[in-house]
Amino acid sequence: IVMKPSRPPIFSLEDAGAEPTPTQYRIGRAARLFWLWFAPNSSAIMVALGASVFALGMSLRQSIVAALVGIALSCLPLGLGTLAGKRSSQPTMVVSRATFGLLGNILPALVALASRVLWGGVLLWFFATSIAEVLLGADLAGTLSSVELALIGLAVGSLLALLISFFGFHLIAAASFVTTVASLALLAGLVALTADRIDFGMARATPDGPWPLMITGAVLVFSVLGLVWAQSSGDLARYQRGTSSGAASMLTSAFGATLPAFGLIAYGVLLAASDPSLAAGLTSQPLATLGDLLPGWYVVPLILATALSLLSGTVLAIYSGGFALQAVGVTLRRPIAVIVVGVLVVGVAALLTFTLNDLFTLFRDLATTFAVPIAAWVGLFAAEVMIRNRRYSSSSLLARGGVYADVRWGNLAAYLVITAIGWGLTTATVPGLDWQGYLFALTGTDQGGVVAATDYGVLVALLLGLLWPVAAGIGAIRRQESADLPGRSDAPEAELPAALKEPEAPRP
Fold first, then answer.
1. Pick from 32, 76, 245, 311: CA 20 to 30 A from residue 144's CA?
2. What is 398-436 written as a DSSP string?
3. At residue 28, what are phi and psi to the nearest 5 degrees?
């Protein structure tokens, strides 16, 4: 029986979890993915990321090129993850079971869960502390201290993020559209009101730094943008029409995430290159520094421009984290899984509020440390998405004994080895992470030098992950695709019986 396509109410509770999205709700067009990804990546914090790239020691042109390379690399996981989510209409880390096996996928799913919790906590912390920074800088805090303001912001942000994530996709989609429109207007105002601080002569006068630093900048942008969202990339594509273009879905997702990010990163590079004091302020207290550049009446718009996007990113992290928790094997309904992840995210944000003072270290060390195993996963998963000719078997992704093995030992072993190699070729200075870089001694590379500081282990992990399925996994994929099981539904759309084909959604 084919249900008539319908659009659920915005405040209806989404209950679909690891299972495929009901066909009657798959009415989304590719354009919707643009604002779903634009919203969490259009924060003024991206200006701080641009300043952090420049602070590595490069010139203006080197910083812009490095950011552009990082943005281009980010399109790979976002686009191919979207394609996998559209094909299966299931969460990214559930589809990942086809690559690692239903039990073998537990380890990558745990990494994804930890990444969602950490990044959600970071974004919520940004939300709370940014509002506190701006209010204090504008002398609007009254008798409240920065910590008290941050805790109030944390409470408000936590409540809103948990509420939106709990209701699920339909409320997230509506909120993302509002955030996209508002962010465009508010960020345009921010740029217009601060553009007079750009000094192109001063910016161009900064000499080139060592060229290997461009790898460092590209890896930093790739880690904070493409790899941060890689394991969530298909979660927003589950409601796409089956008959919509896969290429269009990939492009709109990638462009929605990367266009606003690149514009703001490049603007942050320009501001930092124009004034050394601005550069220092943007990397340590970005929102307070921007607030000092703006007229007093723009304080509220600045808070909104920052808060809306950061809240949107927190919502996506919690929402996607719920699916990652289910992919680990925890048998909770999606709304309950979201609450569990949300509580963990709030705990991380509270911890950061009392302990973290170095924004640059957060971007640099934590992001690239998590980037290594995620890059290894991206390579393995993305390569298999490109190799596959047929749709995924949804039932086999949910229960053992189907098309997909319990453990695909080759891919799981490759994931572990590639991650170990990647960490051996990265560096970190924060306590607890300084064990990285253990392979530099074998290659004769100075661990304190420029080459070691590039963190090129992230790119090595991505490349090795892409190559492994091509070299050793094509046969296993073809055996999966040729399996003839009762109720198989992973054939291409043209091969499905008429009763199983997805109906054309009515145009709005």
1. 311
2. HSTTSSS-S--HHHHHHHHHHHHHHHHT----STTTTT-
3. -70, 145
Closest by Cα among 229, 252, 228, 216 to 69: 216
How far is Cα 207 from Cα 352, in angstroms, rounded to an integer? 36
pLDDT in tens, 162-204: 999 999 999 999 999 999 999 999 999 999 999 999 999 999 9
Nearest CA among 215, 237, 227 for reference residue 378: 227
Q: Is 142 left (phi over 0), alpha (psi -120 to 50) or beta?
A: left
Tens digits of residue pLDDT in 326-372: 999 998 999 999 999 999 999 999 988 887 665 566 667 888 889 99
| Exposure letters 422-459 (e unless 16+ CB within 10 A, then b) | bbbbbbbeeeebeebbebbeeeeeeeeebbbbbbbbbb
Residue with tokens 């993305």: 382
The pLDDT of residue 494 is above 60:
no
Give 401's contacts (C-beta < 8 A, 6+ positions apart).
none
- Burial track 249-280 (b if 16+ CB lie within 10 A, e otherwise): bbbbbbbbbbbbbbbbbbbbbbbbbbbeebbe
Return the closest-CA partner of residue 54 out of 194, 159, 208, 176: 208
Q: Which segments of 89-105 does DSSP mark as H helices, in order?
A: 92-95, 97-100
Contact predicate 460/377, CB 8 Å: no
**Alpha carbons 262 and 421: distance in angstroms, whole number:** 30
Contacts (Cβ under 8 Å, ≥6 apart) of 87: 246, 391, 392
Integer CA distances (angstroms), 21 to 85, 87, 95, 238, 339, in order: 10, 11, 13, 6, 21
Per-residue tokens: 388: 């596959």
- Burial zone of 508 (CB within 10 Å; 0-12 exposed, 13-18 middle, 19+ buried): exposed
Query: Do the beta carbons of residue 66 and residue 218 sit within 8 Å?
Result: yes
Q: What is the mean pLDDT of residues 429-453?
A: 85
CA–CA distance, 266 with 272 (Å, rounded to integer): 10
The torsion defined by the Cα of 48, 127, 364 and 210, in degrees rounded to 10, comes to 0
User: 282 near 47, Cβ under 8 Å?
Assistant: yes
What is the b/e burial string over 462-472, where b = at least 16 CB atoms within 10 angstroms of the residue's CB?
bebbbebbeee
- Both tokens assigned to 18: 């690891």
Return the bridge partners of 28, or none: 240
- 285: tokens are 């207290």
Task: State the Cα–Cα distance between residues 53 and 112, nearest whole angstrom.
Answer: 26
Closest Cα to residue 306, out of 43, 30, 66, 34? 43
